[in-house]
Amino acid sequence: MMVERTYGSSFNTIKWIYIVLSALFCVVDAQADVWPMRKGPYLIYPGNPTDMMVLWQMDDPSTCVLEWRRAGTEALAGYAVTEPRDLTYAHRYVMTDLEPGAAYTYAVHENNRTHTGQFRAAPTSETQSVEFIALGDSRTYTDEFNRLADQICSPSAGAMPPDLIIHTGDFTTYGAYHSYWDREYFSRYHPALRRLQASTPIQPVAGNHETTAPLFNQFFPLPYIDEGLGRYYAFDYGPIHFTVLDQYNAFTTDSAQLEWLEQDLAQTDRPWKILVLHHPGWGAGTHPNHPVVQSHVQPLCERFGVQLVLGGHNHNYSRAMVRGVTHVVTGGAGAPKYIPDQSYPFIIRALAVTHFCRVRVSGQQMSVQAIDLSGHVIESVRVPFEVRPGTAPVWQLF
Length: 398
Ligand SMILES: [Fe+2]
Ligand SMILES: [Fe+2]
Fold this sequence. Notes:
Helices cover 20% and strands 31% of the residues. It has 398 residues and is an alpha+beta fold. The chain has 2 domains: 2-120, Immunoglobulin-like; 129-397, Purple Acid Phosphatase, chain A, domain 2, CATH 3.60.21. The strands form 4 sheets. The protein has a 7-stranded mixed sheet with strand order 10-9-8-18-19-20-21, with helices on one face. A 7-stranded mixed sheet has the order 11-12-13-14-16-15-17. α7 runs parallel beside α8 (291-304). The radius of gyration is 21 Å and the shape is globular. Residues 1-12, 18-32 and 390-398 have low confidence and may be disordered. One fe (ii) ion is lined by residues 137, 170, 313, 315, 331, 335.
Protein backbone atom coordinates (compact mmCIF):
# COMPACT_ATOMS: atom_id res chain seq x y z
CA MET A 1 0.00 0.00 0.00
CA MET A 2 2.82 2.36 0.86
CA VAL A 3 4.44 1.83 -2.49
CA GLU A 4 1.27 2.48 -4.47
CA ARG A 5 0.62 5.69 -2.56
CA THR A 6 4.18 6.78 -3.19
CA TYR A 7 4.21 6.38 -6.94
CA GLY A 8 0.63 6.60 -8.23
CA SER A 9 0.32 5.93 -11.96
CA SER A 10 4.03 5.32 -12.51
CA PHE A 11 4.02 2.50 -10.01
CA ASN A 12 4.28 -0.37 -12.52
CA THR A 13 7.31 1.07 -14.28
CA ILE A 14 9.06 1.83 -11.01
CA LYS A 15 8.17 -1.60 -9.67
CA TRP A 16 9.97 -3.33 -12.52
CA ILE A 17 12.99 -1.10 -12.16
CA TYR A 18 13.01 -1.93 -8.47
CA ILE A 19 12.71 -5.68 -9.09
CA VAL A 20 15.62 -5.66 -11.54
CA LEU A 21 17.82 -3.51 -9.32
CA SER A 22 16.93 -5.57 -6.25
CA ALA A 23 17.95 -8.73 -8.07
CA LEU A 24 21.33 -7.16 -8.74
CA PHE A 25 21.75 -5.77 -5.25
CA CYS A 26 20.75 -8.95 -3.43
CA VAL A 27 24.06 -10.45 -4.53
CA VAL A 28 25.99 -7.78 -2.64
CA ASP A 29 23.71 -7.09 0.34
CA ALA A 30 26.35 -8.43 2.67
CA GLN A 31 28.68 -5.57 1.74
CA ALA A 32 27.27 -3.15 4.30
CA ASP A 33 30.60 -1.64 5.41
CA VAL A 34 31.95 -0.38 2.12
CA TRP A 35 33.79 2.63 0.78
CA PRO A 36 31.58 5.54 1.80
CA MET A 37 29.69 7.74 -0.57
CA ARG A 38 30.81 11.34 -0.93
CA LYS A 39 28.28 12.38 1.71
CA GLY A 40 25.93 10.40 3.89
CA PRO A 41 23.58 8.86 4.03
CA TYR A 42 22.52 11.35 6.67
CA LEU A 43 19.21 12.32 8.21
CA ILE A 44 17.18 15.48 8.78
CA TYR A 45 13.92 15.62 10.70
CA PRO A 46 11.53 17.58 8.44
CA GLY A 47 9.07 18.36 11.27
CA ASN A 48 6.29 15.76 10.90
CA PRO A 49 6.57 12.66 13.15
CA THR A 50 5.54 10.38 10.29
CA ASP A 51 8.39 11.62 8.06
CA MET A 52 12.16 11.36 7.96
CA MET A 53 14.42 12.81 5.27
CA VAL A 54 17.47 10.88 4.13
CA LEU A 55 20.15 12.52 1.96
CA TRP A 56 23.32 11.40 0.30
CA GLN A 57 25.73 12.49 -2.42
CA MET A 58 27.32 10.16 -4.93
CA ASP A 59 30.55 10.25 -6.91
CA ASP A 60 28.70 9.39 -10.11
CA PRO A 61 25.25 9.81 -11.68
CA SER A 62 23.96 6.35 -10.73
CA THR A 63 20.36 5.60 -9.91
CA CYS A 64 19.90 4.39 -6.33
CA VAL A 65 17.34 2.31 -4.47
CA LEU A 66 16.27 3.27 -0.96
CA GLU A 67 14.31 0.84 1.18
CA TRP A 68 13.19 1.02 4.79
CA ARG A 69 11.76 -1.39 7.34
CA ARG A 70 10.54 -1.41 10.93
CA ALA A 71 13.53 -2.47 13.03
CA GLY A 72 13.61 -6.20 13.67
CA THR A 73 11.34 -7.04 10.75
CA GLU A 74 11.99 -8.21 7.21
CA ALA A 75 8.93 -6.74 5.56
CA LEU A 76 9.45 -3.58 3.54
CA ALA A 77 7.79 -0.49 4.97
CA GLY A 78 8.58 1.36 1.74
CA TYR A 79 11.06 1.86 -1.03
CA ALA A 80 12.02 4.44 -3.62
CA VAL A 81 14.15 4.60 -6.75
CA THR A 82 16.06 7.89 -6.69
CA GLU A 83 17.86 9.87 -9.34
CA PRO A 84 20.49 12.60 -8.81
CA ARG A 85 18.85 15.92 -8.10
CA ASP A 86 21.61 17.96 -9.77
CA LEU A 87 25.09 17.82 -11.28
CA THR A 88 26.62 17.20 -7.84
CA TYR A 89 24.83 13.81 -7.82
CA ALA A 90 22.95 14.65 -4.64
CA HIS A 91 19.99 12.46 -3.68
CA ARG A 92 17.20 13.20 -1.26
CA TYR A 93 14.05 11.40 -0.21
CA VAL A 94 11.43 11.83 2.51
CA MET A 95 10.33 8.51 3.98
CA THR A 96 6.64 8.85 4.86
CA ASP A 97 3.90 7.00 6.73
CA LEU A 98 6.24 6.17 9.61
CA GLU A 99 4.90 5.13 12.98
CA PRO A 100 5.81 7.94 15.42
CA GLY A 101 8.32 6.79 18.01
CA ALA A 102 9.06 3.51 16.19
CA ALA A 103 12.57 2.35 15.24
CA TYR A 104 13.43 1.80 11.57
CA THR A 105 16.33 0.54 9.52
CA TYR A 106 17.07 1.65 5.98
CA ALA A 107 19.44 0.82 3.16
CA VAL A 108 20.67 2.77 0.16
CA HIS A 109 21.79 0.56 -2.70
CA GLU A 110 24.11 2.13 -5.27
CA ASN A 111 26.17 0.43 -7.97
CA ASN A 112 27.40 -2.73 -6.22
CA ARG A 113 27.34 -1.31 -2.71
CA THR A 114 24.87 -0.99 0.14
CA HIS A 115 24.89 1.69 2.84
CA THR A 116 22.76 1.22 5.93
CA GLY A 117 21.43 3.25 8.83
CA GLN A 118 18.75 3.28 11.46
CA PHE A 119 16.63 5.89 13.18
CA ARG A 120 13.68 6.41 15.45
CA ALA A 121 10.70 8.28 14.04
CA ALA A 122 9.95 11.44 16.00
CA PRO A 123 7.44 11.29 18.87
CA THR A 124 3.92 12.69 18.79
CA SER A 125 2.84 15.73 20.79
CA GLU A 126 1.34 13.41 23.43
CA THR A 127 4.76 11.98 24.29
CA GLN A 128 5.93 13.13 27.74
CA SER A 129 9.53 11.90 27.78
CA VAL A 130 12.17 12.63 25.13
CA GLU A 131 15.92 12.92 24.98
CA PHE A 132 18.32 14.62 22.60
CA ILE A 133 21.97 15.56 22.22
CA ALA A 134 23.23 19.12 21.76
CA LEU A 135 26.71 19.93 20.48
CA GLY A 136 28.41 22.57 18.39
CA ASP A 137 31.55 23.97 16.79
CA SER A 138 32.62 20.63 15.40
CA ARG A 139 34.81 22.21 12.73
CA THR A 140 38.54 21.87 12.06
CA TYR A 141 39.57 18.92 14.26
CA THR A 142 37.46 16.18 12.72
CA ASP A 143 39.43 13.44 14.51
CA GLU A 144 38.19 14.88 17.78
CA PHE A 145 34.62 15.18 16.47
CA ASN A 146 34.84 11.56 15.37
CA ARG A 147 35.93 10.47 18.86
CA LEU A 148 33.06 12.43 20.33
CA ALA A 149 30.65 10.74 17.91
CA ASP A 150 32.01 7.41 19.10
CA GLN A 151 31.41 8.40 22.72
CA ILE A 152 27.87 9.62 21.94
CA CYS A 153 27.01 6.19 20.58
CA SER A 154 28.86 4.22 23.26
CA PRO A 155 26.91 2.28 25.89
CA SER A 156 28.49 4.30 28.69
CA ALA A 157 26.98 7.47 27.29
CA GLY A 158 23.45 6.07 27.28
CA ALA A 159 21.10 4.80 24.61
CA MET A 160 22.68 4.25 21.22
CA PRO A 161 22.34 5.98 18.90
CA PRO A 162 20.53 9.16 20.02
CA ASP A 163 17.15 9.99 18.50
CA LEU A 164 17.94 13.63 17.73
CA ILE A 165 20.92 16.01 17.69
CA ILE A 166 20.86 19.80 17.79
CA HIS A 167 24.03 21.27 16.26
CA THR A 168 24.66 24.85 17.40
CA GLY A 169 26.68 25.84 14.33
CA ASP A 170 30.17 26.10 12.83
CA PHE A 171 30.32 22.82 10.93
CA THR A 172 33.42 23.62 8.88
CA THR A 173 36.27 26.09 8.84
CA TYR A 174 35.17 27.58 5.51
CA GLY A 175 31.51 26.85 4.84
CA ALA A 176 31.55 28.40 1.39
CA TYR A 177 33.68 25.56 -0.01
CA HIS A 178 32.57 22.04 -0.87
CA SER A 179 36.01 20.71 -0.02
CA TYR A 180 35.77 21.81 3.62
CA TRP A 181 32.33 20.26 4.08
CA ASP A 182 33.68 17.01 2.62
CA ARG A 183 36.83 17.08 4.72
CA GLU A 184 35.47 18.19 8.07
CA TYR A 185 31.77 17.38 8.40
CA PHE A 186 30.98 14.67 5.85
CA SER A 187 34.43 13.06 6.05
CA ARG A 188 34.76 9.62 4.45
CA TYR A 189 37.59 8.80 6.81
CA HIS A 190 35.77 9.08 10.13
CA PRO A 191 33.50 6.05 10.52
CA ALA A 192 32.01 6.94 13.92
CA LEU A 193 30.91 10.30 12.57
CA ARG A 194 29.43 8.61 9.51
CA ARG A 195 27.54 6.12 11.70
CA LEU A 196 26.13 8.90 13.84
CA GLN A 197 25.01 10.89 10.81
CA ALA A 198 23.39 7.80 9.27
CA SER A 199 21.41 7.06 12.43
CA THR A 200 20.43 10.37 13.99
CA PRO A 201 18.74 13.40 12.43
CA ILE A 202 20.96 16.42 13.03
CA GLN A 203 19.11 19.73 13.13
CA PRO A 204 21.42 22.67 12.41
CA VAL A 205 21.72 26.34 13.24
CA ALA A 206 23.78 28.48 10.88
CA GLY A 207 27.10 29.61 12.37
CA ASN A 208 29.37 32.40 11.20
CA HIS A 209 31.62 29.83 9.49
CA GLU A 210 28.73 28.71 7.31
CA THR A 211 28.48 32.31 6.05
CA THR A 212 25.50 33.16 3.88
CA ALA A 213 26.74 30.89 1.08
CA PRO A 214 24.12 28.54 -0.37
CA LEU A 215 25.84 25.29 0.69
CA PHE A 216 24.30 25.29 4.16
CA ASN A 217 20.79 25.46 2.67
CA GLN A 218 21.77 22.86 0.09
CA PHE A 219 22.98 20.34 2.65
CA PHE A 220 20.27 21.11 5.21
CA PRO A 221 17.04 21.67 3.24
CA LEU A 222 14.81 22.50 6.19
CA PRO A 223 11.50 24.38 6.07
CA TYR A 224 13.14 27.77 6.48
CA ILE A 225 10.73 30.63 7.00
CA ASP A 226 12.43 32.81 4.43
CA GLU A 227 14.87 30.76 2.41
CA GLY A 228 16.18 33.71 0.47
CA LEU A 229 16.87 35.93 3.46
CA GLY A 230 17.08 33.80 6.56
CA ARG A 231 17.64 30.26 7.73
CA TYR A 232 15.38 30.40 10.75
CA TYR A 233 12.78 27.74 11.42
CA ALA A 234 10.91 25.92 14.16
CA PHE A 235 9.68 22.41 14.86
CA ASP A 236 8.03 20.39 17.60
CA TYR A 237 9.55 17.25 19.06
CA GLY A 238 7.22 15.61 21.58
CA PRO A 239 6.73 18.10 24.43
CA ILE A 240 9.44 20.46 23.11
CA HIS A 241 9.11 23.37 20.73
CA PHE A 242 12.45 24.21 19.14
CA THR A 243 12.94 27.67 17.66
CA VAL A 244 16.12 28.10 15.61
CA LEU A 245 17.47 31.57 14.80
CA ASP A 246 19.72 32.79 11.99
CA GLN A 247 21.93 35.50 13.47
CA TYR A 248 23.58 36.24 10.15
CA ASN A 249 20.39 37.84 8.95
CA ALA A 250 18.69 40.72 10.73
CA PHE A 251 16.95 39.90 13.99
CA THR A 252 16.73 43.27 15.66
CA THR A 253 13.90 45.81 15.83
CA ASP A 254 11.48 45.75 12.88
CA SER A 255 13.19 42.73 11.28
CA ALA A 256 11.07 39.97 9.77
CA GLN A 257 12.93 37.42 11.88
CA LEU A 258 12.16 39.12 15.19
CA GLU A 259 8.50 39.49 14.23
CA TRP A 260 8.42 35.81 13.32
CA LEU A 261 10.13 34.86 16.60
CA GLU A 262 7.49 36.68 18.63
CA GLN A 263 4.66 35.03 16.69
CA ASP A 264 6.30 31.63 16.90
CA LEU A 265 6.72 31.75 20.67
CA ALA A 266 3.23 33.16 21.15
CA GLN A 267 1.59 30.44 19.10
CA THR A 268 3.24 27.27 20.38
CA ASP A 269 1.32 25.15 22.88
CA ARG A 270 4.31 22.94 23.81
CA PRO A 271 5.19 23.04 27.52
CA TRP A 272 8.95 23.15 26.90
CA LYS A 273 10.44 25.86 24.71
CA ILE A 274 14.05 25.77 23.62
CA LEU A 275 15.67 28.51 21.58
CA VAL A 276 18.70 27.56 19.49
CA LEU A 277 21.20 30.10 18.18
CA HIS A 278 24.90 30.31 17.45
CA HIS A 279 26.31 33.47 19.07
CA PRO A 280 25.20 33.47 22.72
CA GLY A 281 23.78 36.33 24.73
CA TRP A 282 25.53 35.10 27.85
CA GLY A 283 28.66 33.01 27.50
CA ALA A 284 32.10 32.97 29.07
CA GLY A 285 34.15 34.23 26.12
CA THR A 286 36.36 34.59 24.39
CA HIS A 287 33.81 36.09 21.98
CA PRO A 288 31.88 38.98 23.49
CA ASN A 289 28.25 38.37 24.35
CA HIS A 290 25.78 39.22 21.61
CA PRO A 291 24.02 42.47 22.49
CA VAL A 292 20.90 41.83 20.36
CA VAL A 293 20.27 38.53 22.12
CA GLN A 294 20.39 40.43 25.39
CA SER A 295 18.27 43.38 24.25
CA HIS A 296 15.72 41.75 21.93
CA VAL A 297 15.67 37.97 22.32
CA GLN A 298 15.92 37.62 26.09
CA PRO A 299 12.78 39.74 26.75
CA LEU A 300 10.78 37.44 24.46
CA CYS A 301 12.19 34.38 26.27
CA GLU A 302 11.03 35.81 29.59
CA ARG A 303 7.65 36.85 28.23
CA PHE A 304 6.82 33.53 26.60
CA GLY A 305 8.53 31.18 29.03
CA VAL A 306 11.49 29.86 27.03
CA GLN A 307 13.27 27.72 29.60
CA LEU A 308 16.53 26.99 27.76
CA VAL A 309 18.66 28.81 25.18
CA LEU A 310 21.32 26.69 23.47
CA GLY A 311 24.27 28.41 21.79
CA GLY A 312 27.76 27.76 20.47
CA HIS A 313 30.43 30.04 18.95
CA ASN A 314 32.59 29.99 22.11
CA HIS A 315 34.65 26.81 21.95
CA ASN A 316 33.89 25.70 25.47
CA TYR A 317 31.03 24.82 27.79
CA SER A 318 29.27 27.42 29.90
CA ARG A 319 26.04 27.80 31.79
CA ALA A 320 24.35 30.99 32.88
CA MET A 321 21.00 31.82 34.43
CA VAL A 322 19.46 35.14 33.44
CA ARG A 323 16.16 36.12 35.06
CA GLY A 324 14.90 32.54 35.05
CA VAL A 325 16.14 31.62 31.56
CA THR A 326 18.96 29.08 31.32
CA HIS A 327 21.67 29.78 28.74
CA VAL A 328 23.96 26.88 27.86
CA VAL A 329 26.85 27.27 25.44
CA THR A 330 27.93 23.96 23.93
CA GLY A 331 30.70 24.79 21.48
CA GLY A 332 33.20 22.05 22.22
CA ALA A 333 32.76 19.35 19.58
CA GLY A 334 36.04 19.76 17.71
CA ALA A 335 37.12 23.35 17.15
CA PRO A 336 40.20 24.67 19.01
CA LYS A 337 39.20 25.34 22.61
CA TYR A 338 38.82 28.77 24.19
CA ILE A 339 39.75 29.25 27.83
CA PRO A 340 36.56 30.60 29.42
CA ASP A 341 36.41 33.62 31.69
CA GLN A 342 34.30 32.88 34.78
CA SER A 343 33.87 36.59 35.44
CA TYR A 344 31.47 37.06 32.51
CA PRO A 345 28.04 38.16 33.79
CA PHE A 346 25.62 35.51 35.12
CA ILE A 347 28.06 32.65 34.48
CA ILE A 348 27.64 29.77 36.95
CA ARG A 349 29.98 27.22 35.37
CA ALA A 350 32.44 27.35 32.47
CA LEU A 351 34.96 24.79 31.22
CA ALA A 352 37.27 24.47 28.22
CA VAL A 353 36.55 20.87 27.35
CA THR A 354 35.59 18.71 24.38
CA HIS A 355 32.04 17.67 25.18
CA PHE A 356 28.43 17.20 24.19
CA CYS A 357 25.23 17.75 26.17
CA ARG A 358 22.52 15.19 26.81
CA VAL A 359 19.14 16.81 27.46
CA ARG A 360 16.31 14.77 28.97
CA VAL A 361 12.70 15.89 29.36
CA SER A 362 10.12 13.97 31.35
CA GLY A 363 6.90 15.71 32.28
CA GLN A 364 7.91 18.88 34.13
CA GLN A 365 11.52 17.77 34.57
CA MET A 366 14.38 18.73 32.29
CA SER A 367 17.97 17.79 32.93
CA VAL A 368 21.16 18.74 31.10
CA GLN A 369 24.30 16.67 31.37
CA ALA A 370 27.58 17.87 29.89
CA ILE A 371 29.73 14.82 29.01
CA ASP A 372 33.37 14.77 27.95
CA LEU A 373 35.28 12.54 25.51
CA SER A 374 35.83 9.82 28.10
CA GLY A 375 32.14 9.68 29.03
CA HIS A 376 32.68 11.55 32.28
CA VAL A 377 29.75 13.76 33.31
CA ILE A 378 31.31 17.15 33.94
CA GLU A 379 28.06 18.75 35.04
CA SER A 380 24.51 17.56 35.61
CA VAL A 381 21.76 20.04 36.36
CA ARG A 382 18.01 20.48 36.27
CA VAL A 383 16.38 23.23 34.23
CA PRO A 384 13.40 24.76 36.01
CA PHE A 385 10.08 24.39 34.26
CA GLU A 386 8.78 27.79 35.25
CA VAL A 387 10.58 30.89 34.06
CA ARG A 388 10.35 33.45 36.83
CA PRO A 389 11.70 36.79 35.61
CA GLY A 390 13.61 38.75 38.19
CA THR A 391 14.10 35.86 40.62
CA ALA A 392 17.33 34.36 41.81
CA PRO A 393 18.76 31.35 39.96
CA VAL A 394 16.88 28.18 40.81
CA TRP A 395 19.41 25.63 39.59
CA GLN A 396 19.43 22.42 41.50
CA LEU A 397 22.52 20.26 41.35
CA PHE A 398 22.03 16.52 41.46
FE1 LIG B 1 31.11 30.77 15.51
FE1 LIG C 1 33.17 28.48 16.32
